[in-house]
Write a structure and sequence with these properties.
Catalyzes the reversible conversion of 3-phosphohydroxypyruvate to phosphoserine and of 3-hydroxy-2-oxo-4-phosphonooxybutanoate to phosphohydroxythreonine. This protein is α/β, with parallel strands linked by helices and about 350 residues long. The protein has 2 domains: about 240 residues, 3-Layer(aba) Sandwich (Aspartate Aminotransferase, domain 2); about 100 residues, Aspartate Aminotransferase, domain 1. The strands form 4 sheets. Strands 2-10-9-8-5-3-4 form a 7-stranded mixed sheet. Strands 1-12 form a two-stranded parallel sheet. It is globular, with a radius of gyration of 21 Å. The two termini are about 25 Å apart.
Length: about 350
């Protein structure tokens, strides 16, 4: 393959915009005349402080984060938030509601049980997580400290198309795989968190957006580095933050603005997803098990019904210039992760490949 770039459909870490990589490459040894790389400079320096402040301001503007909310740049991945959220929030009543619609929300549900009384408000396990429960199917406890759900399920290819109504109970949402792909009314949430390695930046950064009044009520045994209030008070710099990833997030946000901001990106990503679903649905060979009203615009799952044919498809796709189309090991089949950085051209070429494979097999 030499120096040619492939169309990378990885679920994460995922591809980054080429323009962002080229800009980062141009600045990698000497950032804006500083004489050093961002990877080398002190997080306490004026140069990096400006990168940090500018990145936070860009994110606040793009997501329309209202007053009273703090943006944190943390580490530990979204999985650390599975513990951090209950440690900081469950103390209000000792109870929480969880919707389990896939692998990661299930892990979060089990982790939260260490810290309080956790109620399963909804589950899609009865149909192998091929749908998102409707509002009427949510069994909500008005005394819950918070309601938890995962907005997009990378493994099963489902995505919540609405924000649950919880009667004033704060909502905690894992938006790791669809943040920045569609407008979000942040005011409807208590906590939004996302690992950066899908739509925002390289792996190593976790973004948390938290309603400030929810912090400061952590359980007494909450570890120092898992205390939202500590991180708010120290502006995410109690220890050394993931400097390079924060810098890269800033570049991605600049690129996103050039695409028309989040509304512009929403139109692009939905067009890409619909194109792919249309080809799958019209195919004689391929199927998508996810119910139409629950389908993800970020992770499109499909299969032939034959493990042998699925393996053949994946093998031939590599030779055609695609990579990481193999489905998650727990479900098999194929998965095309078409996050923001995947160009429309990549999806068009994948659609052509699917059509050709359909005709040949």
């Amino acid at each position: 393959m030499g120096n040619e770039r492939v169309y990378n459909f990885s679920a994460g870490p995922s591809m980054l915009p080429l323009e962002v990589l080229e800009r980062a490459g141009a600045e990698i040894t000497n950032y804006q005349g500083s004489g050093m790389s961002v990877m080398e400079m002190s997080h306490r320096s004026k140069v990096f402080q400006k990168i940090f402040d500018d990145t936070k301001a860009k994110l606040r503007a793009l997501l329309n984060v209202p007053e009273g909310y703090q943006i944190l740049f943390l580490q530990g991945g979204a999985s650390t938030q599975f513990s951090m959220a209950p440690l900081n929030l469950i103390g209000a009543t000792g109870k929480a509601d969880y919707a389990v619609t896939g692998n990661f929300s299930n892990i979060a549900y089990k982790e939260a049980q260490k810290y309080g009384q956790i109620h399963l408000a909804a589950s899609s396990a009865d149909k192998n997580h091929t749908y998102i429960p409707q509002q009427s199917q949510l069994e909500l406890d008005p005394e819950a400290s918070y309601f938890y759900y995962c907005a997009n399920n990378t493994i099963y290819g489902t995505e919540w198309q609405y924000v649950p109504e919880t009667g004033g109970v704060p909502i905690v949402c894992d938006m790791s795989s669809d943040i920045l792909s569609r407008p979000v009314d942040v005011s409807k949430y208590g906590v939004i968190f996302a690992g950066a390695q899908k739509n925002m930046a390289p792996a190593g950064l976790t973004v948390v957006i938290i309603k400030e009044e929810l912090a400061g009520h952590e359980l007494p045994f909450t570890p120092l580095m898992m205390n939202y209030k500590t991180m708010i008070d120290k502006d995410s710099m109690y220890n050394t933050p993931p400097c390079w990833c924060i810098y890269m997030l800033g570049l991605v946000l600049d690129w996103l603005e050039e695409q028309g901001g989040i509304p512009g990106m929403e139109a692009i990503k939905h067009k890409k997803a619909q194109m792919l679903y249309d080809v799958i649905d019209s195919s004689q060979l391929f199927t998508c098990a996810v119910e139409p009203g629950s389908r993800s615009d970020m992770n499109v799952v499909f299969r032939t019904g034959s493990d042998e044919l699925d393996a053949k498809f994946v093998q031939e796709s590599v030779a055609a210039g695609f990579t990481n189309l193999k489905g998650h090991r727990s479900v098999g089949g194929m998965r095309a992760s078409i996050y923001n950085a995947m160009p429309t051209e990549g999806v068009e070429k994948l659609c052509d490949f699917i059509k050709a494979f359909d005709r040949a097999n």
